[in-house]
Design brief:
Rossmann fold; ProC C-terminal domain-like fold; NAD(P)-bd_dom_sf; eight-stranded mixed sheet; pyrroline-5-carboxylate reductase activity; 8 strands; elongated; Pyrroline-5-carboxylate reductase catalytic N-terminal domain-containing protein; alpha/beta; P5C_Rdtase_cat_N
């Protein structure tokens, strides 16, 4: 498959790295922006070539991938045209299937929301619609989940807006341990290993038993129950949903 990436930022770079780790059987051409990432990819991977323009990317590709910020889409495609036989895949948050169809009339279109961990062929990767092309493109890149439509996709993908918050929490826990007198390196190792083990437990637990994990990880009157109760009283568990709901109300034009 000949892939062309319009926009070569962090996510596009991670996706291309994942493709290479998953087998590297695609010919890939990337747009010159960002210069640092596009040059690095070309230097590291034999099947990646850096184009001189967005027009050159489209000309060389069977599948064109939009991988820029939402506000950059119109400028990136200005004066460019797709040709029959191509397909368009978008990584752009908020750019829905009808909008993609308007950008590429008559061509197959699809969406995917890769996360940075795709570079290691890890983590969730939500996409829509499920087609042979998308199954082939995403195969081996992580936990691929096909959404029924744009609405379901954005509801799932919206959870990824908590990634930075997760790492902020991780830093907070490490910092708390350090303030309590634990050596920084030890606090970091312990906290990260604990969070990893909890994530692995969540993935290993059958769906029907996920609700049991709270009770299994606390004892009556114990530290876990006391901390959870305090956070419940403070509305701590309502805050993520409220923040995500607020973000969902921001249209594509409101995103950078």
């Amino acid at each position: 498959m000949k892939l062309g990436f319009l926009g070569t930022g962090v996510i596009a770079g991670a996706f291309i790295e994942g493709l290479e780790h998953a087998g590297g059987h695609h010919d890939i051409v990337v747009s010159p922006r960002s210069e640092a990432i596009s040059r690095d990819l070309e230097a590291r991977f034999a099947r990646v070539r850096r184009a001189g323009s967005n027009a050159e990317v489209i000309e060389a590709s069977e599948v064109v991938v939009l991988a820029m910020r939402p506000a950059q889409v119109e400028d990136a495609l200005a004066g460019l045209a797709f040709r029959p036989g191509q397909a368009l895949v978008s990584f752009v948050t908020g750019l829905d299937i009808p909008e993609l169809q308007a950008l590429a009339p008559g061509l197959p279109v699809a969406r995917a929301l890769p996360l940075p961990a795709v570079a290691r062929c890890s983590g969730p990767l939500v996409a829509t619609p499920e087609t042979p092309l998308m199954r082939e493109l995403l195969s081996g890149l992580g936990e691929v989940i096909f959404a029924a439509d744009d609405t379901e996709m954005m509801a799932m993908g919206g959870v990824s807006a908590l990634m930075a918050t997760y790492f902020e929490l991780q830093q907070t826990l490490i910092g708390w341990s350090e303030a309590e007198g634990v050596e920084r390196a030890k606090a970091s190792r312990y906290t990260r290993a604990m969070l990893l083990s909890l994530a692995e437990t969540g993935m290993a637990t059958p769906e029907a038993r996920l609700g049991d994990l709270v009770g299994e990880h606390q004892t009556k009157g114990g530290l876990n129950q006391r901390v959870r109760t305090r956070l419940l009283e403070a509305g701590w568990f309502d805050a993520p949903g409220n923040a995500l709901a607020e973000v969902r109300r921001i249209g594509r034009q409101g995103l950078e």
